Amino acid sequence: MPLGSNAYEEMKLQSVSSHPLGAAAVPAPELLCIFGTGDLGRSLGLRLLQSGYGVVYGSRRPHSCGPLPEGAQVMTHAAAAQSASLVFICVHREHYGFLETLAPHLEGKVLVDLSNNLKKGVYPEANAAYLQRLVPGAAVVKGLNTLSAWALQNGLLAGKQVFLCGNSAEAKQAVGAMATKLGLTVQDRGTLSAARELEDFPLRLFQEWRLPLRVAVGLIAFFFFYLLIRDVIYAAVEQEKDISYRIMIALANKVFPIVSLIMLSLCYLPGVIAAVLQLYRGTKYRRFPDWLDRWMLCRKQMGLVALGLAFLHAIYTFIIPIRYAVRHKLISRVVDEMKDNLTTPFYFDKTEAWGTDSFFVLGILGFFLYVLLGLTSLPSVGATLSWREFSFVQSKLGHLTLFICTAHGYIYGWNKFLRPSTYKWYTPPGYMLCLIVPSVVLVLKFLLLLPCVDKTLTRIRQGWERTQPKEEMVMTKATNM
Amino acid sequence: MPLGSNAYEEMKLQSVSSHPLGAAAVPAPELLCIFGTGDLGRSLGLRLLQSGYGVVYGSRRPHSCGPLPEGAQVMTHAAAAQSASLVFICVHREHYGFLETLAPHLEGKVLVDLSNNLKKGVYPEANAAYLQRLVPGAAVVKGLNTLSAWALQNGLLAGKQVFLCGNSAEAKQAVGAMATKLGLTVQDRGTLSAARELEDFPLRLFQEWRLPLRVAVGLIAFFFFYLLIRDVIYAAVEQEKDISYRIMIALANKVFPIVSLIMLSLCYLPGVIAAVLQLYRGTKYRRFPDWLDRWMLCRKQMGLVALGLAFLHAIYTFIIPIRYAVRHKLISRVVDEMKDNLTTPFYFDKTEAWGTDSFFVLGILGFFLYVLLGLTSLPSVGATLSWREFSFVQSKLGHLTLFICTAHGYIYGWNKFLRPSTYKWYTPPGYMLCLIVPSVVLVLKFLLLLPCVDKTLTRIRQGWERTQPKEEMVMTKATNM
Amino acid sequence: MPLGSNAYEEMKLQSVSSHPLGAAAVPAPELLCIFGTGDLGRSLGLRLLQSGYGVVYGSRRPHSCGPLPEGAQVMTHAAAAQSASLVFICVHREHYGFLETLAPHLEGKVLVDLSNNLKKGVYPEANAAYLQRLVPGAAVVKGLNTLSAWALQNGLLAGKQVFLCGNSAEAKQAVGAMATKLGLTVQDRGTLSAARELEDFPLRLFQEWRLPLRVAVGLIAFFFFYLLIRDVIYAAVEQEKDISYRIMIALANKVFPIVSLIMLSLCYLPGVIAAVLQLYRGTKYRRFPDWLDRWMLCRKQMGLVALGLAFLHAIYTFIIPIRYAVRHKLISRVVDEMKDNLTTPFYFDKTEAWGTDSFFVLGILGFFLYVLLGLTSLPSVGATLSWREFSFVQSKLGHLTLFICTAHGYIYGWNKFLRPSTYKWYTPPGYMLCLIVPSVVLVLKFLLLLPCVDKTLTRIRQGWERTQPKEEMVMTKATNM
């Protein structure tokens, strides 16, 4: 992180050789100024003091501004501004007014705007742009606004990324150096025009999760009512049986795996569509449609929602045998068995044993791979993977998971597909509906892996274009990575 | 990271334009000196060599000091110190004596004290302070002592946070620049007076986990004996039945969920108490009592211990049906059923089916949310959340989890609260006791969410004070964040 | 991060005091040049623009090179190179040829080689070394090649570690400063001779996982066939029963825990061997044999594979009661019970109840500790642990886990060890075989913890050597950490 010019001067004066650096020679710490003695101001001051800075608070009432960190001074705003070249503005935007009158004292200073708004789009301009307009002679740097008073106070900053923007490269360097000293990782986002974006960061609420969650809720609602009609209402109407107690667990345990499988396949569908589009267009140099781009950007969240549903499915399955209804059914079956047949040994259906066990094993393996995929999507685990490892896990392992989970679905219905009783009220059961998308994805993926198709696709992804004269292509596109 | 002055000189001499930087022009690497050829010294040297530094070891017996990393030189301490401006002291404090005699050779050098002690509080002063006293002419920097030889050797340093302290800003800059080059994140902790704190870091042993673990152990012990008396001893005394085999699983599976629920509510109780305190005091500018501060700081660990117990409860529940005693009971029930009633169909209690299924579903959903909360408390996941997302998860989702888990507890006893047989020896069952704290927390939280209370609390948290003249308040406090 | 010399000049010219830094005084951003307009080139350009740099693309056909990020300029290679001091080479190695003719224009520039190969060992020299040979007058820096176009485009760079190497320290400083500005953590790997290693990084595919996975596959195959013969084939041959349906779940659920336990003990065996070796040799200053070193380096992966198998074992166990075969067996048992004994109450074996419950409890606790160990091996969790905490978890908690899981295995066979029917075809059952290694590890570990042995070992690890005269030892070795 480059130095501010005064820091450089300081260094020139005290070179290692000219005077020995003993315990006695503690240099006066660099002074920083904080406007505002609220939670954020106080936590920031504490943290700066811990990192070896001197801190001066600017306050309207320097003598009655509540408890401040030990070692900090309090002055009037003007005096405080005078004593430091960096001023942190820890004041709500609504109260920026007083800064205009202070403008002469802030001439040439670096002002760090840490403010956030409570809602998006309340003001026409960003807080930092407003501040710059009020104090045109200062260099405003927007940033550090993603830090909470809580994190500052408890030293939870290690490696945390913060964003800076501002029109003065030098001012950003000074702020960046300070932030690096606090243990933060700084990312420069350019000029002050990015301030609005930075101010919206702390207000984001699971933006990239919204589409996946909406898809999940929509699918869950659809399949819930579909199965409610087919199972509970059908039984009530046609057989005059009340099996509504099944809603809580038996029905939910059908909905969750169905939606989970569909959402898993929706993770891999956009990749397949993109490949088909590239093959059809014969080039990779045309942008994908917007909906495809947006879809591809939320694949990770889509997959994690699917994993959550698979996790619920697993737990719902584990508690099946301790349910009252299941135990009741088991006991009834024994009683029936006894009454019918007290002499011959109870018949053991080996096909049934193989079928159900295969069904369970595929489910277990699928869930295991699902969890593996989820683990590698943890930021700290993903960061340790090489590019090839990441693509191996997300592509090969991902498609294998989809294949196994789809097979798990097929085996569930292996002996039911051709039975007329399966199609109550002429509707297909839920597990059949949920197999459509995964099957399409798997078939398309299989076709894309055929040598001839794969070869063309690889060439297209390396820059080859079908419509271009071949010679020229080699010269221009294929040279680029 | 700012430059040391000699680094600056070096740069001025070899500017980009003055001589081309070809493969031939490899500049001599900067030399660093290490005193001590033990594990740490060797690993550090290896790592420095990998990062492009030259390394000189100082040793008492330069010709017989065991295997050293390839490329490093070995000299006497005095000669080694002469050749570098930065000296790493990888020697135990007990052997610092020889450094006093070397003091003239270390004049003006930066000494990095990496030493740790085996126990806390053995010496009256920090190792680094002692070193500074022995070599007053050098600039001692304490730091990097949290790195292990193992991590250094295996390159596991990426982004790891290290702490520095020292009286010379320049010396800290030089060490910090070196550490940044190794891929470490540096945090400056001020002057050498912080050295003792830094030396205690590697000796910490789950400090913030102690209170939660003690609470957990205490509660587990209490409920274990309470339930032992109520269940096993009661049965032995009053019914003369030996049901001691239930201790291992059935009793443990009552204790774990009870303690888990209580500890989850203890995560949210301090927040509620703090809010009530602020409402009562009418200001947020008075410090909370110490016990409340300490409690609030270990909420995360409290919650994770609760999650661990909930995890145990889940597994204990999953294996219920494969237990010998359970299978035995099931078979006995069938046999009894058969003997009593061989003709009429076995009665199915729909209320029971709904009740138990609701109980299970609430348990599953509660556990699911529990796990979500646990995942967001992983450092790398939490770091990706915005402030609003984090507070949404920890507050809204947290209280929802508590609500669902409490409802899980209430449904467990839904038809037992009014039964006299529930109160063996006039004591309430465990699940009733465990519902007290969560219910209190939820009721208080609900009251705090009432519009009139919530509004006052929000104003207090924005700086408003009840006792202050209103006009003044607006001027001073409300301006601060 | 130190400054390049031109950055320094810039700073001297615009000092804070000499001219105020207002919104109007936006300095022209530093220009960087990118050769290559492929995916990587475009993503990198986008990212650089976001961080406040200016970007100039060099292209053979500046007027038809596809969509580029907004704000970037496109020129011929020569013109683009002229305008910047840093040139990113985002071109495949196969097309480096044109750079030779550009060499005069690249004199004195810093060239960043981001190229990767599709396979290892295709070319005799590293891409970066080849580039340096083509353009000897430039300073080639190899690095950033582990970044994917995807990560660049989506801003997933925070704290990601990148590696740099190059012969010019100044060139590396300039590239490092740029990378730090993008939010990356830079690690310097020395001179250009490390380029080959850096180019191999993105091609690594779970290298450190290979040995553990091979061991796991080998053990699984061995125990699968061993148990297949003992269980299924034995039953077919000797009892003429077809129990092949057991392969899917019952047999797999024996193989997984067996291999898991063996692999867990293989995590701790090398540590024990190392200690015995140090005791035998009486010194820690002799290198361990290569196989032991390699083994010790993959202990973490070994443990995680073991955890994966334990996870499978847990799920296989949870679904036992819903299996067709198990339910069938239960019903058959009731029917048999009824026929034999319709009057006396069904016998309850308390020893059996205690035995099986202890077995389950040990399994649950073992799995719980297993998961804890796995969680602490997550990079972000491990990073928050102090050295003492990490060693506590990995050594004490690890050996406790091994002890509990081994006890789980012993209790499984508690009443079978002396039964002749256990030894079908004179072979011991699988669980006996799997107890050998863990038992050896635990016994050795116990012996190493005996006070007399432990004391000697601690002294050896602090540098003491048995063969050395004692006095000298104190002087040389014991001083080092």
Structure, explained:
Three copies of one chain form a homotrimer. The first copy, chain A, is an alpha/beta fold. The relative contact order of chain A is 0.07. In chain A, 57% of the residues lie in helices and 7% in strands. The two termini of chain A are 30 Å apart. Residues 1-26 and 469-478 of chain A have low confidence and may be disordered. The longest helix of chain A has 35 residues, at 247-281. Chain A has an eight-stranded mixed β-sheet, with helices on both faces. The first copy, chain A, is elongated, with a radius of gyration of 32 Å. In chain A, helix 5 (127-134) links the parallel strand 5 (110-113) and strand 6. In chain A, helix 10 (247-281) crosses helix 16 (387-412) and helix 12 (299-318) crosses helix 14 (350-376). Chain A is built from 19 helices and eight strands.
Structural class of chain A: alpha/beta
- Based on DSSP secondary structure assignment, what is the total number of beta strands of chain A? 8
Strand content of chain A: 5-15%
Poorly predicted segments of chain A: 1-26, 469-478
Shape of chain A: elongated
Main sheet attributes: strand count, strand direction, barrel closure of chain A: 8 strands, mixed
By DSSP (H or I, 4+ residues per run), the number of helices of chain A equals: 19
Distance between the termini of chain A: 30 Å
How would you state the average pLDDT of chain A, rounded?
Answer: 83
Q: Which chains make the largest contact? A: A-B, 98 and 89 residues
